[in-house]
Amino acid sequence: MRPQPDRVISVRRVRPRFETVERRLWFGGDRFRTALFNAYTMLLCDEFEFVAIVRNYLPAIRDEQLRKQLKSWLGQEASHGVQHRHACAYLDRIRLRYRGYYKIENFVIFRFLFPLLGWKLRIGLIAALEHFNTLMGEMCLRRSDYFAKADSELGLLLSWHFAEEIEHRAVIHDIAEAVGVGYFTRIATGLLAFALYTGVLFTTAFWFAAQSSDLLRPSTYVQMFRFMFVEERFAQFVLAYARDYLSPRFHPLKRDSDRFAEAVFQRLVPARPAGGS
Fold first, then answer.
1. Cβ-based neighbour number of residue 70 at 10 Å
2. What would the mean pLDDT of 34-44 be, rounded to a whole number?
3. Which of 15, 29, 141, 170 lies in disulfide reach of 252, CB 3.0 to 4.6 Å?
4. What pTM did the predictor assign?
């Protein structure tokens, strides 16, 4: 599939009021999901790193529609990074230690791992990470009330972010193909990305849960089991998305998930098209 000429990707300026967030167990009292999405919020401060890497591919793109979509992607991801960093003030307020942990994670991935990768492997890895973020978006937003019991401001951050991940899910895949990433490179970087993202996300969630003494509570593990296999069915989504990625004919737009994003966009502030020449 080629970039869709009529597919518009917009930058939405969403500014949650994180200073109003007070509850420690902000996800409806659920200990595991609170820790998991706190971890996701911290890790997505890395959006600026991805923006800096991907911006280097812009001169290599000759397709004007794809260039326009890439500029919109850059705008969306930069906006996500800003708001996730603002959200970390909440982690400070509830006295979760994360700054040293985050520095180590950031150093290992962006100062050690990425510099070891070549031109094609870097964009291939980021394309696979985008596929994982789309998985998270579809898994959560397929239920319109998923964040109903969560704090409204953190729920706004996550629903907006996930919706835009669904909206721009094909951009980096198309960039990777345009610069020559082939099937076997896609599979290799996909395996690395899925293993890396899942491992870091859950390790960080356990780090936060340990600080709240939630690793000692049986209810935490019951909630994790329900997240993995019963309600969100995270494990099932990982297998389904990995299977899609293994197909030689894979393209992100073949999976119809736009309706989940549109339901969120209808509740947000007006958006402006971005990425013009």
1. 25
2. 97
3. 170
4. 0.94
